[in-house]
Amino acid sequence: MCSGVGNMRLVFLGPPGAGKGTLAESVAAAFGLTHLSSGDMLRAAIAAGTPLGSKVKGYVEAGKLVPQEILGEVVAARLAEVGGFVLDGYPRTVEQADFLGRLPGVSLEAVIYVTVPEEEAVRRLLGRRVCSVCGALVNTEELDSENCPACGGALVARADDAPATIKKRYEIYQKETAPLVSYYRAGGLLREIDGVGPRPEVLSRLEAELAPLAACGHDNG
Ligand code: ADP
Fold this sequence. Notes:
Layout: E1 9-13, H1 20-31, E2 34-37, H2 38-48, H3 51-62, H4 68-81, E3 85-88, H5 94-102, E4 110-115, H6 118-127, E5 128-131, E6 137-139, E7 155-156, H7 163-177, H8 179-186, E8 190-194, H9 199-219
Parallel strand pairs: 1-3, 1-4, 2-3, 4-8
Antiparallel strand pairs: 5-6, 5-7
Helix pairs in contact: 1-9, 2-3, 6-7
Bound molecules: adenosine-5'-diphosphate.
The site of adenosine-5'-diphosphate (ADP) has 18 residues, from helix 2 and helix 3.
């Protein structure tokens, strides 16, 4: 389906630590789309102490899925405000995928499935830090300093990046989210990207995969 570059509607799928957040952000910037991360939305609500934040805090910090009854309407409301989007972290269950599929005006162009072996993904999560000042995401493997390369702020690990919570998130991914691979493959939407390798390399693989959709947008004006 073609809908114009700035109106593309994409979903990013992949295990925790696959790097989908950073990739989704780069793709959104490159194609003029809105990056919507369910995890970022939930963490922002928790940090701001909103009613939503207090409802979801326990789930997020334990690495458990937030119930669809809470999250569905939040995602639907955000999607209704934007044009083209890169949705990252949602859907994570077949129930959520069905819900997304029923929302008016959000038929998807593609679902990008980022693959990374579990060992590599867990290593990345264990090294992941976020800057307590500017919010930049970094990995200790790519740093030679204890501070944020962007602003010098102190780096902290996310509460749900503790080893036991990572294991739990991985189990939930296998059980609840992995079935979406065949769900979207059956719908002809799935595009698989090898997420292993230096970031610029992975990104150029991804852009090559998306180029036909973008070209399709140019043809149609
Ligand atoms: P990850 O690094 O695991 O991809 P995210 O930032 O996407 O992390 O999500 C962090 C947490 O937010 C999840 O462990 C879960 O508690 C909650 N969450 C995010 N998206 C969803 C979703 N679609 N359904 C239920 N819970 C979600």
